[in-house]
Design goal:
The protein is an all-alpha fold. The chain has one domain. It is built from nine helices and no strands. The radius of gyration is 17 Å and the shape is globular.
Length: 152
């Protein structure tokens, strides 16, 4: 651009990045799912096998599945069964995800209404609940410390 080298993500990396970002925020902005749909519809011709490989390399393939599954279910994004099968979390997490990320809940952004429900969703949907639980405990401990110290 204007004589300068510019780097950008390959479409497969972008597919993983966008899905991780959306899932990290519990899919509470439908625009993020729409971005996934647009990427899937773009003329770039995603190599879905590479998307699956890159998602597994992140150690958070579940989070990528949540976003692409929701984009497919709710916005008819053209996502192949092979991708969802390759990244699928255990059945119990798939069922929970479809309840947390139903059309009604996403339209109402209900996960934003309660920090406790938000954290519960994060713990229940995490590939390793222990790491998210430790993060939650650390956040609570820091909040308690800050409150005990008081203002200023």
């Amino acid at each position: 651009v204007e004589g300068r080298a510019v780097r950008w993500l390959r479409p497969e990396d972008e597919a993983v990045y966008l899905a991780l970002h959306a899932s990290n925020h519990a899919l509470q902005r439908l625009a993020w799912l729409f971005d996934l749909k647009l990427l899937a519809l773009s003329g770039g011709g995603l190599d879905w096998r590479t998307v699956a490989e890159r998602a597994r390399d992140t150690a958070f393939p579940h989070a990528v599945w949540y976003a692409w599954d929701a984009a497919r279910r709710l916005l008819a994004a053209p996502v192949p069964d092979s991708l969802l099968k390759a990244l699928a979390p255990p059945r119990w997490q798939r069922l929970l995800a479809r309840r947390f990320f139903s059309a009604e809940r996403l339209l109402a952004a209900t996960l934003l209404d309660s920090r406790a429900v938000w954290m519960a969703a994060k713990v229940l949907l995490a590939p390793r609940a222990s790491s998210v639980a430790r993060y939650g405990v650390r956040r609570v401990r820091n909040a308690v410390r800050a409150r005990l110290r008081g203002p200023g």
